[in-house]
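Let's practice the habit of predicting before peeking. Look at the sequence and jot down your guess about where helices and strands might fall. Then scroll down.
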Amino acid sequence: MIFKRPTPHFAALALVACLGAAPLMAQELTDPFLNAAPRTAKELGRIEGAVQPTTDFTAPERFETNPGGAATTRARTDADAFSQSSANISFERELDFKVGNGLFKKLWVSSPSSTLASDGLGPLYNARSCQRCHLKDGRGHVPEGPGDDAVSMFLRISVPGSDTEPMSKIEAFLLSVGDEGRQTRPDPVYGGQLQDFGVAGQVAEYKLGVDWEDVPVALAGGETVTLRKPTWRADDLGHGPLAPGAMLSPRVAPQMIGLGLLEAIPAEDILAHADPEDADGDGISGKPQIVWSFEHDRPLLGRFGYKAGAPTVREQSAAAFNGDIGISTPIFTNPWGDCTEAEADCRAAPHGDGDARGTEIDAEGLDLVTFYSRNLAVPERRDVGGAQVLRGKQVFYEAECTACHVPKFVTSRLKDQPEQSFQLIWPYTDLLLHDMGEGLADNRPEGRANGQEWRTAPLWGIGMVQQVSPNASFLHDGRARSLLEAVLWHGGEAQAARDRVVALSPDDRAALTRYLESL
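Done guessing? Here is the structure:
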Protein backbone atom coordinates (compact mmCIF):
# COMPACT_ATOMS: atom_id res chain seq x y z
CA MET A 1 0.00 0.00 0.00
CA ILE A 2 1.06 3.60 -0.48
CA PHE A 3 0.63 6.31 2.12
CA LYS A 4 1.99 9.71 1.19
CA ARG A 5 3.54 10.71 4.50
CA PRO A 6 6.92 12.29 3.68
CA THR A 7 9.73 12.51 6.17
CA PRO A 8 10.30 16.01 7.60
CA HIS A 9 13.28 16.50 5.28
CA PHE A 10 11.29 15.49 2.20
CA ALA A 11 8.39 17.63 3.38
CA ALA A 12 10.62 20.69 3.40
CA LEU A 13 11.81 19.95 -0.13
CA ALA A 14 8.27 19.26 -1.30
CA LEU A 15 7.11 22.57 0.12
CA VAL A 16 9.52 24.42 -2.16
CA ALA A 17 9.07 22.13 -5.17
CA CYS A 18 5.28 22.16 -5.17
CA LEU A 19 5.06 25.92 -4.92
CA GLY A 20 7.50 27.11 -7.53
CA ALA A 21 10.92 26.79 -5.87
CA ALA A 22 10.68 30.23 -4.27
CA PRO A 23 11.59 30.40 -0.54
CA LEU A 24 9.11 33.28 -0.20
CA MET A 25 6.29 30.85 -0.85
CA ALA A 26 7.01 28.88 2.30
CA GLN A 27 6.68 32.10 4.25
CA GLU A 28 3.56 33.25 2.44
CA LEU A 29 1.55 30.04 2.84
CA THR A 30 1.29 30.18 6.60
CA ASP A 31 -1.92 30.39 8.64
CA PRO A 32 -2.38 34.03 9.75
CA PHE A 33 -5.98 33.25 10.70
CA LEU A 34 -4.84 30.78 13.38
CA ASN A 35 -3.51 31.94 16.73
CA ALA A 36 -1.26 28.90 16.96
CA ALA A 37 1.58 28.06 19.32
CA PRO A 38 4.77 26.69 17.71
CA ARG A 39 5.16 22.93 17.95
CA THR A 40 7.97 21.63 20.10
CA ALA A 41 10.37 18.91 18.97
CA LYS A 42 8.68 16.51 21.38
CA GLU A 43 5.25 17.30 19.94
CA LEU A 44 6.50 16.81 16.38
CA GLY A 45 7.71 13.34 17.33
CA ARG A 46 4.38 12.44 18.92
CA ILE A 47 2.48 13.74 15.90
CA GLU A 48 4.66 11.82 13.45
CA GLY A 49 3.85 8.62 15.30
CA ALA A 50 0.15 9.37 15.68
CA VAL A 51 -0.51 9.93 11.97
CA GLN A 52 1.35 6.90 10.66
CA PRO A 53 -0.85 4.49 8.69
CA THR A 54 -1.84 1.26 10.33
CA THR A 55 -0.83 -2.16 9.08
CA ASP A 56 -3.03 -4.04 11.55
CA PHE A 57 -6.60 -4.61 10.41
CA THR A 58 -7.61 -7.07 13.12
CA ALA A 59 -8.91 -4.38 15.49
CA PRO A 60 -9.75 -0.66 15.47
CA GLU A 61 -6.95 1.82 15.99
CA ARG A 62 -6.75 3.80 19.19
CA PHE A 63 -9.08 6.83 19.10
CA GLU A 64 -10.50 5.77 15.70
CA THR A 65 -14.04 5.96 17.04
CA ASN A 66 -13.64 9.74 17.46
CA PRO A 67 -12.82 11.17 14.00
CA GLY A 68 -13.12 14.75 15.28
CA GLY A 69 -11.00 14.17 18.36
CA ALA A 70 -12.49 15.55 21.56
CA ALA A 71 -14.90 17.61 19.45
CA THR A 72 -16.59 14.42 18.17
CA THR A 73 -20.26 14.23 19.03
CA ARG A 74 -22.27 11.11 19.78
CA ALA A 75 -23.80 9.49 16.71
CA ARG A 76 -27.52 10.03 16.25
CA THR A 77 -30.00 8.05 14.19
CA ASP A 78 -32.12 11.04 13.12
CA ALA A 79 -31.77 13.90 10.66
CA ASP A 80 -29.97 16.11 13.22
CA ALA A 81 -26.76 14.07 13.13
CA PHE A 82 -24.80 16.90 11.44
CA SER A 83 -26.32 19.74 13.49
CA GLN A 84 -24.60 19.16 16.84
CA SER A 85 -21.98 21.41 18.38
CA SER A 86 -18.43 20.32 19.21
CA ALA A 87 -18.62 17.97 22.17
CA ASN A 88 -15.84 19.86 23.96
CA ILE A 89 -17.46 23.29 23.64
CA SER A 90 -17.99 25.31 26.83
CA PHE A 91 -21.41 26.38 28.10
CA GLU A 92 -20.63 30.03 27.34
CA ARG A 93 -19.48 29.31 23.79
CA GLU A 94 -22.48 27.07 23.20
CA LEU A 95 -24.60 30.23 23.30
CA ASP A 96 -22.58 31.73 20.44
CA PHE A 97 -23.07 28.48 18.52
CA LYS A 98 -26.85 28.70 18.96
CA VAL A 99 -27.01 32.34 17.93
CA GLY A 100 -24.90 31.51 14.88
CA ASN A 101 -27.32 28.69 14.12
CA GLY A 102 -30.17 31.20 14.18
CA LEU A 103 -28.37 33.39 11.65
CA PHE A 104 -27.55 30.34 9.52
CA LYS A 105 -31.27 29.52 9.37
CA LYS A 106 -32.53 33.08 9.03
CA LEU A 107 -34.70 33.85 6.00
CA TRP A 108 -33.57 37.08 4.38
CA VAL A 109 -36.12 39.44 2.83
CA SER A 110 -35.91 42.00 0.06
CA SER A 111 -35.33 45.69 0.64
CA PRO A 112 -36.86 47.98 1.71
CA SER A 113 -38.40 46.20 4.68
CA SER A 114 -39.53 46.99 8.19
CA THR A 115 -37.32 44.14 9.41
CA LEU A 116 -34.10 46.06 8.89
CA ALA A 117 -31.91 43.39 10.44
CA SER A 118 -33.02 40.86 7.82
CA ASP A 119 -33.35 42.85 4.62
CA GLY A 120 -30.99 42.89 1.67
CA LEU A 121 -31.90 39.64 -0.11
CA GLY A 122 -30.62 39.44 -3.67
CA PRO A 123 -31.78 41.16 -5.76
CA LEU A 124 -30.76 37.94 -7.59
CA TYR A 125 -30.10 34.88 -5.45
CA ASN A 126 -30.01 31.09 -5.19
CA ALA A 127 -31.50 30.71 -1.71
CA ARG A 128 -32.98 32.82 1.09
CA SER A 129 -30.88 31.27 3.84
CA CYS A 130 -27.76 29.17 4.38
CA GLN A 131 -29.95 26.34 5.67
CA ARG A 132 -31.95 26.21 2.43
CA CYS A 133 -28.84 24.94 0.61
CA HIS A 134 -27.18 22.97 3.41
CA LEU A 135 -30.26 20.99 4.41
CA LYS A 136 -29.98 20.13 8.12
CA ASP A 137 -26.31 21.13 7.73
CA GLY A 138 -25.94 18.27 5.26
CA ARG A 139 -25.67 17.90 1.51
CA GLY A 140 -28.01 19.36 -1.06
CA HIS A 141 -29.72 17.33 -3.74
CA VAL A 142 -30.12 17.18 -7.50
CA PRO A 143 -33.55 18.13 -8.89
CA GLU A 144 -35.13 14.82 -9.83
CA GLY A 145 -37.83 15.94 -12.23
CA PRO A 146 -40.48 18.53 -13.08
CA GLY A 147 -41.56 20.47 -10.00
CA ASP A 148 -38.47 19.57 -7.97
CA ASP A 149 -36.42 22.64 -7.06
CA ALA A 150 -32.69 23.24 -7.46
CA VAL A 151 -32.30 25.38 -4.34
CA SER A 152 -29.36 23.37 -3.00
CA MET A 153 -27.27 23.46 -6.17
CA PHE A 154 -26.29 25.93 -8.87
CA LEU A 155 -23.99 26.47 -11.84
CA ARG A 156 -20.72 28.36 -11.57
CA ILE A 157 -19.76 30.19 -14.74
CA SER A 158 -16.63 31.73 -16.18
CA VAL A 159 -15.08 32.64 -19.52
CA PRO A 160 -11.46 32.37 -20.67
CA GLY A 161 -9.29 35.34 -19.75
CA SER A 162 -7.24 37.16 -22.34
CA ASP A 163 -3.64 38.26 -22.32
CA THR A 164 -4.70 41.89 -22.73
CA GLU A 165 -6.65 41.98 -19.44
CA PRO A 166 -4.99 43.15 -16.22
CA MET A 167 -3.99 40.27 -13.98
CA SER A 168 -5.70 39.71 -10.67
CA LYS A 169 -3.60 39.80 -7.50
CA ILE A 170 -3.41 36.02 -7.30
CA GLU A 171 -2.49 35.69 -10.99
CA ALA A 172 0.28 38.25 -10.55
CA PHE A 173 1.55 36.48 -7.46
CA LEU A 174 1.57 33.05 -9.09
CA LEU A 175 3.34 34.43 -12.14
CA SER A 176 5.99 35.92 -9.89
CA VAL A 177 6.84 32.45 -8.55
CA GLY A 178 6.74 30.70 -11.91
CA ASP A 179 3.16 29.41 -11.94
CA GLU A 180 0.77 31.02 -14.41
CA GLY A 181 -2.37 29.59 -12.84
CA ARG A 182 -5.51 29.41 -14.95
CA GLN A 183 -6.78 32.77 -16.16
CA THR A 184 -10.57 32.97 -16.26
CA ARG A 185 -13.06 35.76 -15.72
CA PRO A 186 -16.73 35.94 -14.72
CA ASP A 187 -19.25 36.02 -17.55
CA PRO A 188 -19.62 39.74 -18.47
CA VAL A 189 -23.40 39.55 -18.00
CA TYR A 190 -24.07 36.68 -15.61
CA GLY A 191 -21.09 37.03 -13.28
CA GLY A 192 -19.46 34.15 -11.44
CA GLN A 193 -22.51 31.99 -10.80
CA LEU A 194 -26.03 31.75 -12.11
CA GLN A 195 -28.89 32.78 -9.81
CA ASP A 196 -32.26 31.17 -10.40
CA PHE A 197 -34.37 33.50 -8.24
CA GLY A 198 -35.04 37.23 -8.20
CA VAL A 199 -36.91 39.51 -5.82
CA ALA A 200 -40.05 41.27 -7.07
CA GLY A 201 -39.31 43.13 -10.29
CA GLN A 202 -36.10 41.20 -11.05
CA VAL A 203 -35.76 38.58 -13.77
CA ALA A 204 -34.03 35.38 -12.64
CA GLU A 205 -30.91 34.54 -14.60
CA TYR A 206 -31.76 30.95 -15.54
CA LYS A 207 -33.32 27.63 -14.69
CA LEU A 208 -31.14 24.59 -14.07
CA GLY A 209 -31.61 21.80 -16.59
CA VAL A 210 -30.07 18.35 -16.88
CA ASP A 211 -30.19 15.32 -19.16
CA TRP A 212 -29.13 11.90 -17.91
CA GLU A 213 -27.43 9.06 -19.77
CA ASP A 214 -27.14 5.55 -18.33
CA VAL A 215 -23.60 4.10 -18.27
CA PRO A 216 -23.40 0.41 -17.29
CA VAL A 217 -20.22 -0.79 -15.59
CA ALA A 218 -19.43 -4.50 -15.31
CA LEU A 219 -17.81 -5.62 -12.06
CA ALA A 220 -15.95 -8.78 -11.17
CA GLY A 221 -18.21 -11.51 -9.86
CA GLY A 222 -20.95 -10.93 -12.40
CA GLU A 223 -22.32 -7.70 -10.91
CA THR A 224 -23.27 -4.63 -12.93
CA VAL A 225 -23.75 -1.06 -11.73
CA THR A 226 -25.50 1.55 -13.86
CA LEU A 227 -24.03 5.00 -13.49
CA ARG A 228 -25.87 8.12 -14.59
CA LYS A 229 -23.94 10.65 -16.64
CA PRO A 230 -25.32 14.22 -16.52
CA THR A 231 -25.29 16.95 -19.12
CA TRP A 232 -26.05 20.22 -17.37
CA ARG A 233 -27.85 23.12 -19.03
CA ALA A 234 -28.62 26.74 -18.29
CA ASP A 235 -32.22 27.01 -19.52
CA ASP A 236 -34.52 30.04 -19.78
CA LEU A 237 -31.69 32.57 -19.71
CA GLY A 238 -33.13 35.85 -18.48
CA HIS A 239 -30.48 38.27 -19.76
CA GLY A 240 -29.53 37.01 -23.19
CA PRO A 241 -27.05 34.35 -24.28
CA LEU A 242 -23.97 33.35 -22.37
CA ALA A 243 -20.67 34.81 -23.51
CA PRO A 244 -18.68 32.87 -26.14
CA GLY A 245 -16.62 30.17 -24.50
CA ALA A 246 -18.65 30.22 -21.28
CA MET A 247 -17.79 27.32 -19.00
CA LEU A 248 -20.37 25.92 -16.58
CA SER A 249 -19.72 23.85 -13.46
CA PRO A 250 -22.51 22.36 -11.30
CA ARG A 251 -22.10 22.43 -7.53
CA VAL A 252 -24.21 20.66 -4.92
CA ALA A 253 -24.05 22.17 -1.43
CA PRO A 254 -21.74 19.95 0.69
CA GLN A 255 -22.23 18.86 4.29
CA MET A 256 -20.91 21.32 6.88
CA ILE A 257 -19.32 19.09 9.53
CA GLY A 258 -15.70 19.38 10.67
CA LEU A 259 -14.86 22.63 8.89
CA GLY A 260 -13.11 24.21 11.87
CA LEU A 261 -10.92 21.14 12.28
CA LEU A 262 -9.90 21.19 8.61
CA GLU A 263 -9.07 24.88 8.98
CA ALA A 264 -6.88 24.08 12.00
CA ILE A 265 -4.58 21.67 10.14
CA PRO A 266 -1.20 23.43 9.74
CA ALA A 267 -0.55 24.40 6.14
CA GLU A 268 2.87 22.74 6.28
CA ASP A 269 1.26 19.38 7.09
CA ILE A 270 -0.99 19.65 4.04
CA LEU A 271 1.86 20.77 1.81
CA ALA A 272 3.96 17.81 2.98
CA HIS A 273 1.65 15.52 0.98
CA ALA A 274 1.93 17.53 -2.24
CA ASP A 275 3.79 15.90 -5.12
CA PRO A 276 2.71 17.79 -8.27
CA GLU A 277 5.44 16.28 -10.48
CA ASP A 278 4.90 12.76 -9.07
CA ALA A 279 8.50 12.62 -7.91
CA ASP A 280 7.90 9.33 -6.09
CA GLY A 281 6.38 7.71 -9.18
CA ASP A 282 3.22 6.41 -7.52
CA GLY A 283 0.87 8.04 -10.03
CA ILE A 284 -0.55 10.48 -7.46
CA SER A 285 0.24 14.14 -8.13
CA GLY A 286 -1.58 16.20 -5.54
CA LYS A 287 -0.94 19.92 -5.71
CA PRO A 288 -2.02 22.75 -3.41
CA GLN A 289 -4.54 25.32 -4.47
CA ILE A 290 -3.32 28.87 -3.80
CA VAL A 291 -5.91 31.62 -3.53
CA TRP A 292 -5.97 35.31 -2.76
CA SER A 293 -7.42 36.02 0.67
CA PHE A 294 -9.58 39.15 0.42
CA GLU A 295 -9.67 39.35 4.21
CA HIS A 296 -5.91 39.05 4.79
CA ASP A 297 -4.84 40.61 1.45
CA ARG A 298 -2.29 37.91 0.71
CA PRO A 299 -2.00 34.49 -0.92
CA LEU A 300 -3.09 31.58 1.26
CA LEU A 301 -3.54 27.86 0.88
CA GLY A 302 -7.01 27.03 -0.46
CA ARG A 303 -8.91 24.49 1.66
CA PHE A 304 -12.68 24.84 1.17
CA GLY A 305 -14.94 24.26 -1.79
CA TYR A 306 -14.84 21.57 -4.47
CA LYS A 307 -11.71 23.11 -6.01
CA ALA A 308 -10.36 24.50 -2.71
CA GLY A 309 -11.18 28.05 -3.77
CA ALA A 310 -11.51 29.54 -0.27
CA PRO A 311 -8.79 29.74 2.39
CA THR A 312 -10.84 30.03 5.60
CA VAL A 313 -14.27 29.25 7.00
CA ARG A 314 -14.96 32.97 7.48
CA GLU A 315 -14.09 33.87 3.91
CA GLN A 316 -16.02 30.90 2.52
CA SER A 317 -19.04 31.96 4.59
CA ALA A 318 -18.79 35.55 3.36
CA ALA A 319 -18.52 34.42 -0.26
CA ALA A 320 -21.62 32.24 0.13
CA PHE A 321 -23.59 35.09 1.68
CA ASN A 322 -22.66 37.35 -1.21
CA GLY A 323 -22.91 34.95 -4.14
CA ASP A 324 -25.75 32.67 -3.02
CA ILE A 325 -28.02 35.04 -1.09
CA GLY A 326 -26.91 38.47 -2.31
CA ILE A 327 -25.95 39.63 1.20
CA SER A 328 -23.00 42.00 1.61
CA THR A 329 -20.40 41.37 4.30
CA PRO A 330 -17.34 43.21 5.62
CA ILE A 331 -15.25 41.05 3.25
CA PHE A 332 -17.45 41.23 0.12
CA THR A 333 -19.20 44.56 0.36
CA ASN A 334 -21.27 44.66 -2.85
CA PRO A 335 -24.92 44.97 -1.72
CA TRP A 336 -26.10 43.54 -5.05
CA GLY A 337 -24.15 40.30 -4.65
CA ASP A 338 -23.05 38.75 -7.96
CA CYS A 339 -24.92 41.18 -10.25
CA THR A 340 -22.71 42.63 -12.98
CA GLU A 341 -22.64 46.11 -14.49
CA ALA A 342 -24.64 44.70 -17.40
CA GLU A 343 -27.47 43.88 -14.95
CA ALA A 344 -28.21 47.53 -14.27
CA ASP A 345 -31.70 46.92 -12.87
CA CYS A 346 -30.27 44.61 -10.22
CA ARG A 347 -27.61 47.09 -9.14
CA ALA A 348 -30.12 49.95 -9.09
CA ALA A 349 -32.66 48.06 -6.96
CA PRO A 350 -33.05 48.86 -3.24
CA HIS A 351 -30.44 47.24 -1.01
CA GLY A 352 -30.13 46.68 2.72
CA ASP A 353 -26.80 48.29 3.49
CA GLY A 354 -27.94 51.79 4.40
CA ASP A 355 -28.45 51.30 8.15
CA ALA A 356 -26.36 50.87 11.29
CA ARG A 357 -25.12 47.45 10.18
CA GLY A 358 -22.95 49.03 7.49
CA THR A 359 -23.18 45.88 5.38
CA GLU A 360 -26.24 43.65 5.16
CA ILE A 361 -24.68 41.30 7.67
CA ASP A 362 -22.16 43.00 9.93
CA ALA A 363 -18.87 41.70 11.32
CA GLU A 364 -20.49 40.39 14.50
CA GLY A 365 -23.09 38.44 12.55
CA LEU A 366 -20.48 37.03 10.17
CA ASP A 367 -18.32 36.00 13.14
CA LEU A 368 -21.24 34.16 14.73
CA VAL A 369 -22.04 32.26 11.53
CA THR A 370 -18.34 31.44 11.19
CA PHE A 371 -18.20 30.17 14.77
CA TYR A 372 -21.27 28.03 14.14
CA SER A 373 -19.78 26.63 10.93
CA ARG A 374 -16.45 25.87 12.62
CA ASN A 375 -18.14 23.95 15.39
CA LEU A 376 -20.58 21.69 13.56
CA ALA A 377 -19.31 18.44 14.98
CA VAL A 378 -18.25 15.26 13.24
CA PRO A 379 -20.30 12.29 14.56
CA GLU A 380 -18.54 9.31 16.10
CA ARG A 381 -17.93 6.20 14.03
CA ARG A 382 -20.36 3.28 14.15
CA ASP A 383 -19.48 -0.43 14.31
CA VAL A 384 -15.81 0.46 14.09
CA GLY A 385 -14.79 -3.02 15.29
CA GLY A 386 -17.16 -5.07 13.14
CA ALA A 387 -15.53 -7.86 11.13
CA GLN A 388 -16.91 -6.61 7.79
CA VAL A 389 -15.90 -3.01 8.59
CA LEU A 390 -12.35 -4.06 9.43
CA ARG A 391 -12.13 -6.11 6.23
CA GLY A 392 -13.43 -3.11 4.28
CA LYS A 393 -10.81 -0.90 5.91
CA GLN A 394 -8.09 -3.30 4.77
CA VAL A 395 -9.51 -3.23 1.23
CA PHE A 396 -9.55 0.59 1.33
CA TYR A 397 -5.86 0.69 2.28
CA GLU A 398 -4.80 -2.07 -0.13
CA ALA A 399 -6.59 -0.31 -3.01
CA GLU A 400 -4.36 2.68 -2.12
CA CYS A 401 -7.31 5.01 -1.55
CA THR A 402 -5.28 6.53 1.30
CA ALA A 403 -2.87 8.07 -1.22
CA CYS A 404 -5.40 10.93 -1.55
CA HIS A 405 -7.88 10.24 1.25
CA VAL A 406 -5.21 10.68 3.95
CA PRO A 407 -6.73 9.31 7.15
CA LYS A 408 -5.16 11.35 9.95
CA PHE A 409 -3.84 14.78 10.89
CA VAL A 410 -3.15 16.61 14.15
CA THR A 411 -4.47 20.16 14.37
CA SER A 412 -2.52 23.20 15.56
CA ARG A 413 -2.37 24.05 19.23
CA LEU A 414 -4.68 27.07 19.24
CA LYS A 415 -4.80 29.72 21.94
CA ASP A 416 -8.37 30.91 21.28
CA GLN A 417 -10.10 27.91 19.68
CA PRO A 418 -10.10 25.22 22.36
CA GLU A 419 -12.57 23.05 20.44
CA GLN A 420 -10.15 22.61 17.52
CA SER A 421 -6.88 22.80 19.44
CA PHE A 422 -4.36 19.92 19.18
CA GLN A 423 -6.77 17.21 18.15
CA LEU A 424 -6.01 13.94 16.37
CA ILE A 425 -8.59 13.94 13.58
CA TRP A 426 -9.55 11.47 10.85
CA PRO A 427 -10.94 13.46 7.88
CA TYR A 428 -9.71 11.15 5.06
CA THR A 429 -8.52 13.96 2.79
CA ASP A 430 -5.26 15.63 1.86
CA LEU A 431 -7.08 18.87 0.87
CA LEU A 432 -5.03 18.89 -2.35
CA LEU A 433 -6.05 19.05 -6.01
CA HIS A 434 -6.00 15.86 -8.07
CA ASP A 435 -6.74 15.02 -11.69
CA MET A 436 -9.90 12.90 -11.55
CA GLY A 437 -10.09 12.14 -15.25
CA GLU A 438 -12.39 13.06 -18.10
CA GLY A 439 -15.46 11.39 -16.59
CA LEU A 440 -15.67 13.89 -13.72
CA ALA A 441 -14.25 16.85 -15.61
CA ASP A 442 -16.20 20.10 -15.63
CA ASN A 443 -13.65 21.57 -18.09
CA ARG A 444 -13.70 24.81 -16.09
CA PRO A 445 -10.37 25.93 -14.58
CA GLU A 446 -10.37 27.62 -11.19
CA GLY A 447 -7.14 29.13 -9.93
CA ARG A 448 -4.43 26.48 -10.15
CA ALA A 449 -7.00 23.74 -10.77
CA ASN A 450 -7.55 22.73 -14.36
CA GLY A 451 -10.82 21.40 -15.74
CA GLN A 452 -10.17 17.85 -14.51
CA GLU A 453 -8.82 18.62 -11.03
CA TRP A 454 -10.78 18.55 -7.78
CA ARG A 455 -9.92 18.80 -4.11
CA THR A 456 -9.99 15.45 -2.31
CA ALA A 457 -13.34 15.31 -0.53
CA PRO A 458 -13.28 14.56 3.22
CA LEU A 459 -14.98 11.24 3.96
CA TRP A 460 -15.85 11.66 7.65
CA GLY A 461 -19.59 11.39 8.16
CA ILE A 462 -20.16 10.18 4.60
CA GLY A 463 -22.10 7.14 5.80
CA MET A 464 -24.71 9.42 7.43
CA VAL A 465 -25.29 11.78 4.49
CA GLN A 466 -28.51 10.12 3.36
CA GLN A 467 -29.72 9.73 6.94
CA VAL A 468 -29.55 13.52 7.29
CA SER A 469 -30.99 14.23 3.85
CA PRO A 470 -32.62 11.18 2.19
CA ASN A 471 -32.52 12.75 -1.29
CA ALA A 472 -28.84 13.63 -1.10
CA SER A 473 -26.33 12.12 -3.49
CA PHE A 474 -22.56 12.25 -3.93
CA LEU A 475 -19.76 13.98 -5.87
CA HIS A 476 -19.64 17.64 -6.86
CA ASP A 477 -22.79 17.44 -8.98
CA GLY A 478 -24.73 14.75 -7.14
CA ARG A 479 -24.53 12.25 -10.01
CA ALA A 480 -23.61 9.33 -7.73
CA ARG A 481 -26.60 7.82 -5.92
CA SER A 482 -24.46 5.51 -3.80
CA LEU A 483 -20.95 5.35 -2.44
CA LEU A 484 -20.05 2.59 -4.89
CA GLU A 485 -21.22 4.75 -7.79
CA ALA A 486 -19.02 7.57 -6.48
CA VAL A 487 -15.99 5.26 -6.44
CA LEU A 488 -16.70 4.03 -9.98
CA TRP A 489 -16.64 7.61 -11.31
CA HIS A 490 -13.03 8.02 -10.17
CA GLY A 491 -10.51 8.35 -12.99
CA GLY A 492 -7.23 10.09 -13.71
CA GLU A 493 -4.93 9.70 -10.71
CA ALA A 494 -7.56 7.52 -9.04
CA GLN A 495 -8.06 5.21 -12.05
CA ALA A 496 -5.83 2.45 -10.65
CA ALA A 497 -7.62 2.47 -7.29
CA ARG A 498 -10.99 2.44 -9.05
CA ASP A 499 -9.93 -0.51 -11.20
CA ARG A 500 -8.86 -2.43 -8.10
CA VAL A 501 -12.35 -1.95 -6.70
CA VAL A 502 -13.90 -3.19 -9.95
CA ALA A 503 -11.74 -6.33 -9.73
CA LEU A 504 -12.69 -7.12 -6.12
CA SER A 505 -14.89 -10.04 -5.22
CA PRO A 506 -18.49 -9.08 -4.42
CA ASP A 507 -17.85 -9.83 -0.74
CA ASP A 508 -14.84 -7.48 -0.60
CA ARG A 509 -16.73 -4.73 -2.44
CA ALA A 510 -19.56 -5.08 0.06
CA ALA A 511 -17.02 -4.84 2.89
CA LEU A 512 -15.52 -1.69 1.35
CA THR A 513 -18.97 -0.10 1.15
CA ARG A 514 -19.69 -1.11 4.73
CA TYR A 515 -16.44 0.50 5.87
CA LEU A 516 -17.27 3.76 4.07
CA GLU A 517 -20.75 3.69 5.62
CA SER A 518 -19.13 3.45 9.07
CA LEU A 519 -17.14 6.66 8.59
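How did you do? The radius of gyration is 22 Å.
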